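User: Predict the complex with zinc ion.
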Amino acid sequence: MLNGSGKFIVRSAWEILRITEVKKEIFDNIWVKGVPFKVSFFLWRVLKKRLPIGEELIKMRVVDNVRCCCCNEGAHETFQHLFLTCPATMRVWETFIAATGNQIHFLQLVVTIKKWWKVDSPAKLISLYKSIPAFILWHVWRRRNATRHGESMNFSNLIFEINRSLYNLARTRYPWLKYLPKQWPLIVQFLEVYTPLISHKVVAWEKPQRDTFKCSCDGLSKGNPGPSTIGFCIRDWEGNLRYAEARKLTESTSLIAEAGAIKVGMEFCFNNGMTPVVVETNSLIMKKVLDGVSEVPWSISLEIQNIKCLMEKGQISMKHIYREGNQLVDYFTNLVVHFVGTLISNSLQELPGEGKNIILLDKNRTANIRIQKCQNSNYGFQDTTTNIYNNIS
Ligand SMILES: [Zn+2]
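Assistant: Here is the predicted structure with zinc ion placed in the model:
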């Protein structure tokens, strides 16, 4: 029970004592992120044959004979028949596989499900393909129950219910897509050719004008709300560090931390004669709030009042900068959030190596590349078809 270093650890003892089973691939694929628990759990019940289906009721001698109520073939209600070979069910399987451009030979239920999980698919479709067997079985079962209780659900409705579940899953998985086709064959086509467009921008820290200071501010919240840090650093017109400070806050949100950082940074500049000063924040919300473009969130109304008071005294201006150009203070806040205490530095020499490097790179106007995904494009995809499921009656 000793580990490689000759020490006793509970984990090594647990590994010896616990009884392990060989991992079953089949159960690894049942749980797909975004699929409702009841649907995944239903698939598990089918695979474990734990359903009050005719086949099982006969085995338990509850009844002598149960015929499938979803077709006129007079077949026994077995897992294999209801969930695979019943004519309507078979058409459902075929309809959904046809849209993917793949082929499966539907011979045995468990084999069919396993094949679905292994269908070759582009990355964006993996989870959707994996979830299809669960959705098909779930809706076939709902249809069977409705029919058994005297209601009806025709074939088209069955298809549309499964389609809706898949669309909802795609929406949950890719909430940033502004456009997403609603029908399964088009969803497949759309996500097959999905390539996010990337844009880039060159961002560099700029020295302020002569005789002006620059105060870079940043607020950080791990968890939002969670442990937070505020930081600011002041550099002169030559890019030399004059003062830096970062300290922890109690549990807070990103917005409160951003506002706190600006307020504390401004106060320091004002009280220590480091004016005129350009105060920089990478929080676009804060910039908009201070410009009067956005409403003041109630959680920071007091800070905003204080900041505006300081700004009214003059010699302070606000500027927005991308995070890539605000690396020094970002480095300070990240450093402090992982340690207890405060970081105060009056000169370059007192800083850790990484901080010194950032200052030197900023002085030389070394550019950082800001990369952004364009999420609103539909990438030239054309939704041309209205009657996409052929031959549905
Ligand atoms: Zn049937």
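The chain has two domains: 21-192, 203-374.
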